[in-house]
Amino acid sequence: MAAEPAPLSILKSKIPQPLRFPTAALMSLFLSVVLYSATSDFRAGDLASVSKRRENWVEIMGFLGCKIAELAVGWWGGYDSIDLASLTLLSHMPRLYLLTTFYGIRPSTMLASLAIDMLTTYVPFRLLRPIAATHKDNPPKDAVANRSVINDLPVRLFTTVLAACIYAVIVYGSFSSWLPIYLVTHFDGVRDISAAHSAALPFLIAAFVPVGFAAREFIFTPSTGARKDLGDIKKSAFNPVTANLVQTIQHNVWGYSKRTRTLIQRTATLAAVTGLYSWVEVYLTIDGAEGYGAAGWAAIWATAAVATGSVFWWVGDVDGITA
Hints:
By secondary structure, the protein is mainly α. It has helices at 6-14, 17-38, 40-48, 57-76, 81-102, 107-128, 147-150, 153-175, 179-186, 194-198, 201-207, 209-224, 230-236, 245-254, 258-285, 291-316. The relative contact order is 0.12.
């Protein structure tokens, strides 16, 4: 296994632990300002016509708070740079997809904005936190569980396409049923809903392959590779005869395997972050979007996150995979 580049090791060792998150937050905000300013001429013409103006400091500070909260979830959730970049793609994409599909915003503008958002979370975490063993191609044998599974190319391809299919089916089902009328009713200013009527499932699946990749990296790989620690071993030795009331309740409520607990935690985080971020971003940035409308749009993607995590649990619940 290749050693970590010297500059990264030096940077991590020089910054005291209590200062690393503030450093990551400042670095992320700085990169965001620089990259969005550098691409403003390319993006502004598209987004200005559909965006609400931020006219007071309360709104501006609110958006800064959302950015820092997102970073905090990643930092204190123990996520590495790949985790947080994947979470960023999955939670930021719904608003940009709405703008591209129903407001006529160029796909290149969406991709540029999404790339900036991912870079501004990936770079600070890559510099200040090591890559998790589950995301390394050749981790130490005792560092991860089910190493042969998470590093198997057919498994990677299958789980990526599977997640893409789940997202595509849920979005396609919404397009084919309630969403067109919902958009017209709760999004004053939506320009064109023909994409909902002309959507083809195979093309949606192909378009959501990056989403499937991110979902696999955020949910399936870390949960399948989660290895029991000493605390997990002690919990697995639960004895109902000698356990007290608190231990019994804890075991009954949260006495799942390490893989299942990790999968539940990450699925819940993805659904919550996606739902909340999508609602905030759509309602507060898109001109004419109602709060109720933004909630409905966010619910589609939160539902897809929960469905993907549930199917990933089912896929991993087979003989040969360590729980």
